[in-house]
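// run 5 | inverse folding | seed 20
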């Protein structure tokens, strides 16, 4: 886990610098004042990498000997090359193509990393803790890297991209130290593996995760468009995103403790219950403060739910199917994020009404998990 943690830290630093470098670009600009067509384009582009990854990358990662380690190495090197190419193309239309490639590569790394984790722990009981540590590393290193990246951004966005490229390059070299695992599996047991992936426990927590991701997407765009007409709306939205990042780190920190006290299903029920109560309260009270609290809590609890979900799939999915399984589930999750995000963009509900929607949907999710607790 230490070696994977080293790679993940470098990737997080590269991602932070990359995001800051392109923060003012047309591609990643989703400020509250952005036109609806711009946001709709962003939603479409954010979904596209899943369409690329799903049919091709998962099976490749699973089938070739040492595929996960090799994939992490190739992704890191290609991220480095892609960022270098961006340096001279910040004002070019080709930036769109390069940014799209970066999204595909980022998703490929995410799938590979999640598939590697179960091979590095001693028992399934350590999965939540291991995923939590990686999440904390990502948040801490991303925050730490944001400081020098922000200073470089004041000089020139190209300098920030150079920092990002260096981090991805170092991650590539570090990935060569990861253990080599052969993931090929005889075809004779593939049907059994598929049945295990369709088990009731996996299907229920996958549905819960999809609903949770959908609510996170809905709330993100709902708050963004709602704050557009508020005084200092952009500053409030930035504060909400900053507090959400902090909440995600807290969620990663408390998740292992919750796992020691309850099952993954109970963790997911707890997540929906907390978001549901805060959402209904925010819907009744209304106001910017309530909205900022809700988006922060939702993202923080979302990280707890994600860790519970990943733990179940990592434990229930056979080794050879893990990459494909996570590609499949992540594709559905992203569809939910985009789909409910579109609802928020198209309808533009009043602030309190949107908060109430989140609260009632999540309360319904908690009731669903509670009624099915014994099966």
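// decoded
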């Amino acid at each position: 886990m230490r070696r994977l943690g080293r790679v993940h830290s470098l990737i997080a630093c590269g991602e932070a610098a990359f995001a800051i470098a392109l923060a003012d670009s047309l591609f990643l600009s989703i400020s509250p004042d952005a036109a609806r067509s711009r946001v709709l384009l962003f939603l479409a582009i954010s979904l596209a990498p899943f369409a690329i990854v799903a049919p091709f990358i998962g099976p490749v990662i699973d089938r070739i000997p040492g595929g996960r380690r090799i994939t992490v190495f190739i992704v890191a090197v290609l991220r480095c090359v892609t960022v270098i190419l961006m340096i001279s193309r910040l004002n070019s239309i080709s930036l769109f193509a390069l940014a799209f490639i970066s999204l595909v590569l980022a998703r490929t790394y995410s799938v590979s990393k999640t598939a590697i984790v179960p091979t590095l722990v001693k028992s399934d009981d350590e999965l939540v803790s291991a995923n939590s540590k990686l999440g904390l590393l990502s948040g801490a290193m991303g925050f730490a890297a944001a400081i020098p990246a922000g200073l470089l951004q004041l000089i020139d966005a190209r300098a920030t991209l150079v920092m990002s490229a260096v981090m991805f390059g170092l991650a590539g070299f570090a990935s060569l130290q990861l253990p080599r695992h052969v993931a090929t599996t005889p075809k004779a047991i593939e049907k059994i593996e598929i049945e295990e992936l369709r088990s009731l426990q996996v299907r229920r927590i996958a549905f819960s995760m999809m609903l949770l991701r959908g609510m996170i997407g809905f709330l993100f765009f709902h708050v963004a468009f709602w704050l557009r007409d508020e005084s200092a709306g952009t500053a409030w939205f930035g504060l909400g995103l900053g507090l959400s990042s902090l909440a995600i780190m807290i969620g990663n920190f408390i998740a292992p403790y919750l796992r020691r006290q309850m099952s993954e299903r109970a963790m997911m029920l707890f997540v929906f219950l907390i978001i549901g109560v805060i959402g209904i309260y925010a819907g009744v009270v209304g106001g910017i403060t309530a909205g900022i609290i809700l988006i922060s809590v939702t993202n923080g609890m979302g990280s707890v739910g994600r860790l519970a979900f990943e733990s179940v799939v990592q434990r229930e999915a056979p080794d050879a199917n893990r990459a494909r399984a996570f590609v499949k589930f992540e594709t559905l999750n992203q569809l939910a994020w985009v789909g409910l995000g579109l609802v928020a963009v198209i309808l533009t509900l009043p602030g309190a009404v949107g908060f109430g929607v989140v609260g009632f949907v999540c309360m319904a999710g908690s009731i669903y998990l509670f009624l099915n607790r014994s099966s």
